[in-house]
């Protein structure tokens, strides 16, 4: 029975005062029973065992008994909150201070004393207050600075060194003094050792040193703008960025290095959270690109990915340099991939945070560009302003072309009616020829007529959607006859051409019209479509080519004198140099006389020539049929 065992062990402690080894064995048995057993710890407190061990630790003359008693106290306090409240007094903190400052105390006894302080302040605001008011925290900070020597910082196996174990316990205790709950007063006191912590990080990158220091730094600066600013002012953020850079550039990049880089990342995040303006310090170390590399590591857990993405979000929240670096290193697609592929809610929230920063960044950059256009202070800004004004001119020209298209629609109203009449007459004549001539292969005859329907397709690398073919599919011969549903043809054309052109093709066509009659009608319509597409092609390609040539002009101006610039201008495309006076009437003449046409204007000229050829062939065919 647990209660019986504890009663017997307590009696053993009381009656074995002259036998330290027996007392040590009894203490070891007690903490093995009470460890992670709140009920046993509470019962031991009720029978007076907790206070007896406390007195034994202070009064015993044997070091091994003191060490065992302090460790047992720590185990019981950690297992039961009522035991913590019972022993959390200023008197106990003062007794522990005596153990720490006594020159006769060994390293192990000091470590047990620090352990008791740790469990007293953990999740205990009163304990955090006592550790500050009694001056215990100042003593802990002194141990943090003086416990490790230079040689001990570079130990390959730090766990075998008792001084390192004491120093590690001190780091953990300081973390509990400032966090959970957050204690700003203790944070302000602990920042006094930041210069020493910075020096340790600069001189050693061993995981056993970097990990405890980063944990201490991260909890001390968390949600405390004063401490954050102080840490940045002494170059602490620069040091963390350098440590991360060194870890990421490690040729082996072992698993331990990856995990340590995540720890450093969390510390960086704590330094700039709620104070994102500090993130500008990280821009010169390209921290965002390093974090993106770290994020691509396959060994990371979901929680580690969340920490990295949040750090990226805080780095890019207000810093334009970090925002640009995120985009340049394909950070945006990576965030979208995380958002779409992950099922973890926290990871999705973190990725959404970064994407929201990207949205704000776009808006801010747009506003900045607008402000710069109002305050031209350099030649480069002046050039940007000129380019913007040119774009505005081309948009005005686009409106003019749209107005011209509308006029063409009105002018072709009469031609549309004539085209219907012409189509009907041609259809009848072609039908007579088909029946009277009785060609040997009617299928080839229909295919030849079908081939004639297809109008030239204008293609462009600039915008394949805008310069869509005017006719996407040729009419197919019906199995039961050579007729086609005119409504389906119009529906197909409406899906493949602009609205303004579609309206021109809503004329009624007799359903009894055979495929050959439809050919003549569609020739007239395809010619109109080609003309309108020519205007659209002319506008967009001319706009793109003008911008391209304007860049060439700037390079010529920067490398040549004025006289040589005129010579270079003679070798440029006439369509690019003509400017606004160039219109659809003078376009062909200007380009035909040019010996140095650019690729875009060459394609446009060839398209117009094909269009004119279609019109001539259509006119010749109509005249021959009428004859």
Automatic annotation (TrEMBL):
InterPro entries: ARM-like (IPR011989), ARM-type_fold (IPR016024), TERB1 (IPR042359). Coiled coil: none annotated. Residues 472-503 are annotated as: Disordered. One of its GO terms (biological process) is homologous chromosome pairing at meiosis. This is TERB1 protein. It comes from Copsychus sechellarum. The gene is Terb1.
